[in-house]
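Ticket #4471: structure output looks truncated?

Reporter: J.K.
Steps to reproduce: submitted the chain below (173 residues) through the standard prediction queue, then opened the result file.
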Amino acid sequence: MSVQTKTPNTRSADAGWEPDAATSSDGTQFISFTIGDESYGVDIMAVREIKVWSEITRLPEQPDFVRGVLNLRGAIVPIVDLRCRFGQGLTEATALHVVIIVQIEGQLVGLLADRVSDIVTVDPAKIKPVPKIGQNGKSAFLSGIVSIESELIALIDLSRLLTVPETPMQLAS
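Returned output as attached by the reporter:
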């Protein structure tokens, strides 16, 4: 697994910071990351690798949120720009951005994010449902919301990330 220069911290929804915590048998762990000022999380069991941004090969006739592909030790991995997928415009990727390589239904996919924040341990009972008010756009990709200390983390449903149709805002871009 590629490692960033800084190891993510481990936090718990119940106990605050736990820098030396081992995998908890009574909680689910997520990798948390940011896109702009917003925090998101994906199940740690789906994460295969975290890489710094590098140039990719663009492919024709792809949705805007598919930035292209990269060759990861012989595997061709599509890169999804989460900011664009959530209808917030294209990410101007720099060397400071990261690509979180996840496995979605047997396929490796790279998620372009601003930075990785932490590893968080969550009691499944603490995960709240996504409010149904105006549920469209990026909320269609979310499986729940969890509060960690004073921060809300939106949990991404990876299986829906590639299957939910594009929003009108994405189609217009």
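Triage note (M.O.): checked the attachment and the full token line is present. The two ends are 35 Å apart (CA to CA).
Status: closed, working as intended.
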